[in-house]
Amino acid sequence: xAHQLTLTTPVKAAGLMVLAGASFAVVNTALQGATMxxxxxxxxxxxxxxxxxxxxxxxxxxxxxxxxxxTGQVWLHVLRVALxxxxxxxxxxxxxxxxxxxxxxxxxxxxxxxxxGAGLFLHETVSIHRWGAVVLGIIGGAVILxxxxxxxxxxxxxxxxxxALWAASSVVTKFLTRADGPETVTIYLLVLxxxxxxxxxxxxxxxxxxxxxxxxxxxxxxxALAQHVLVRAYSLADAAFLQPFxxxxxxxxxxxxxxxxxxxPTGSMWLGTAIILAASFYLLEQERRQPV
Length: 292
What we know:
Layout (H helix, E strand, L loop, with lengths): L1 H36 L4 H22 L1 H4 L5 H22 L4 H8 L2 H11 L7 H18 L11 H20 L5 H20 L11 H24 L2 H8 L2 H13 L6 H21 L4
Helix pairs in contact: 1-10, 1-11, 1-12, 2-4, 2-9, 2-10, 4-8, 4-9, 5-8, 5-12, 6-8, 6-11, 7-11, 7-13, 9-10
């Protein structure tokens, strides 16, 4: 029985990570529609997105408030949320200027930061297979992005900043799940993000164009689902193992960006995507072969 659990848990964790990536891809499409196409302010969109996500959880939180809100790691929750808030703001602002596929390619730098942090601060074992998968993923992202070409713009560095902050937040998340459940970690994120996002949105008056309202509502509901699934994945597997599967969100974002907005990546996108997919599935196969 123990042998079977060892084999199936990495697969389950990887599947949850892929599901989170697909959900976030839909969220990104909605956010880009609201900001780039409809002119909504990025801070206002972010405020309503996460407030709606919190509202989705409130009935459940009220019923289980004693268990969910109990934690001995309050300051770590605050640190995680501060890092996440910075990442969210830079990400939403970046989506107002660059195509989804380009922004996601830059986010592929995040696993490098996560793997480094997991090894240094969480003392996780970062095997040669994990390092190899992360390096291949970054190479695939570079092939897609072509930062050496004339098409590259400095504004695309906004997602790079988001990648660094989210990576740090991911490392803290993994540490939190050692003592707190996925529900507790998710709820603290949503509760603490709301006042931070509200302060940042003061300048825009919290207003949204009429056409953007339903996009933001949908993004908020999907954000609640994606955050919960993401934390659940971290509770089942090491942060360094999970990050290469986060690369797969590139595929979802590219497809949605093309279908919805007509953003057509350069031809090198297909080669880069093939490298990323190969790295992710190689890592999963190596983990399945590990002895008990």
